[in-house]
Amino acid sequence: MTFLEFTEGPMFYFAAALFVVAGLWRLVGIVRLGKKPDLAPARGSAATGFLKGNLRHFFPRGLFAQRTWMHLLGGYGFHLGLFVLFFFAAPHIAFIEKFTGLSWPALPRWGFIIAAEIAFAGLIVLWVRRFSDPVMRLISDWDDHVGTWLTFIVMLTGCLALQEAHDSLRAIHMLSVNIWLIYFPFSRLMHAFTFFLSRGATGANYGRKGMNP
Amino acid sequence: MTVTAFKLHPLRLLVAAITLLCLAMASTADAQSSVRPPEGAVDSPGITAPLGEASDADIWRQLKYGGTEPPPVVGDNPILEVPGRPQNVFEALMEEIRPSETVNVTSSSGQPRVMQVLGEEWRLLRREIILPYAGWILVTVLGVIALFGIVRGRIKIRGGRSGKYIPRFSMAHRIAHWFLASSFILMAISGLVILLGRTVLVPIIGKEANAVLTSAMLQGHNLFGPVFILSLLIVIFKFMKGNFFQWADAKWIIKGGGLLGGHASSHHYNFGEKTWYWIVVIVGLIMSATGMLLLFPWVTEVLAWHQLSTVLHAGGAILMISIAMGHAYIGSIGMEGSLDSMLRGEVDENWAKEHHDLWYEEVTGKKASHDEDESAPGAATAEGSA
Ligand code: HEM
Fold first, then answer.
1. How far apart are CA B47 and CA B68, in angstroms?
2. Which residue of B has its CA nearest to A126?
């Protein structure tokens, strides 16, 4: 078994299984926490609040947008870019098809490259903000940095393997993907799945009190 | 000695006869040459002597440079030293822009020549000058920085920190700066592997590993290029204010930035910083333009533009990396209090008074005294381009 076969085979199966099981474990755990019974009569809909809370947080408040426009652009650039490059890059679609049989149209190479560039620019901006803002520096711990760096390394090794000419480069990319998958459920990277719960919980709380903006 | 030794052996006779016959045929062929040039071929100018009488070097030179007179040979390398002809990529490009009257399609430089030698000149420039010197320049710069660090030590804030801070760079300034620094480092590392991999890395890691590494770095370099350009443009606009020449800069230059003794006053940026800013602007833009041309080579078919681009791109990279290393040193471990401006966005008052007194006076409305400077003339402030 070559190293590439190992990273795309047993190691990938292990990492993916851990990602799913541990991720679900955490999500279910959070949901099962439930909330304290609220004895006050409801003045509005908690469900609408949940939804509004989620949607509203996609748009910054006017004053914040002015002060944090770089962070805003970085955040959107990174997440949207990552989404596009993950789901619409031809090699990724081929990889997913290999395991699931599912396939969909891929972006042309130039589109994928632009998405990757936007994602990189965004990630770098988000990371440099983390250490050049004293408040961010205070509230960031090693988990934030490890999560950022692992994500960066996954993206970097992917882009370094773009020529698709060397197995070793592909194997390094797969190795970093596996490490990322293993780290994911135990870290703040989980925010990819938990963000809607926290935004929703806040929204539902306010919604029930009739404070839906 | 026996007579038999002089006897003509029939076999020897046969060999001698065949040899004579061949010689005779060869001389006839030479006299009434049966080798005709292909139809439509023209005589190369200047090549009048029968083949074999002129030296090969002369013939090749005339094929390459045309002309009726053999070009003068100066030094070891006549190819690069032919007067009146484009000597290098830059001159060829000038001819391309303003072609001479005798334009002929036989060369990409617009010169009437049978052979096109620009590629060879470019190859020599790359191999003989850029590749061998690039690495050594960087090593030398690193050495000089290390030496400066050892001799001068960390430049301390005179009088120590005051504990009071004044704002210097906004959040957007800091993000822009580190965005550029990060993308620059990615470009520099990948670029250096591409440039020096064959000469520096192959002897250490071997050809195979270098091939894999270079493929990776090339992809990375191409992909990060536009990210670097974006960050460069943001920095150019965000940092332009305050980076134009002011009267205080002239005095700063005369005082050698404080190295020649006495205090060298400066506004928000001192002259060293301003120079760095404009190098980042000019060289950065040249790097971006040449890089884009190399990334999208079909933009122009003029070969000389591509060759010029590679030369400028490599030269600009070495220049920027060299200065960036000095900048990074003096902006971090080399000078106490500098990094605060890019990490906290604010600097210690005493740092501001010492390094940017005029700016300090502008923002605080207080006077910055330099009494200590007169009493300690030897204690120069060495304000580099932090
Ligand atoms: C990675 C190590 C680096 C460090 C530690 C560093 C540090 C600093 C610091 C402390 C300042 C503020 C100086 C002041 O307060 O006056 C500064 C300014 C600046 N830096 Fe950097 N820097 C680094 C890399 C870079 C790179 C790679 C570039 C460009 C390619 C760059 C471009 C600039 C520019 C344009 C300024 C604005 C000041 C001026 O106008 O000259 N820096 N840097």
1. 8
2. B175
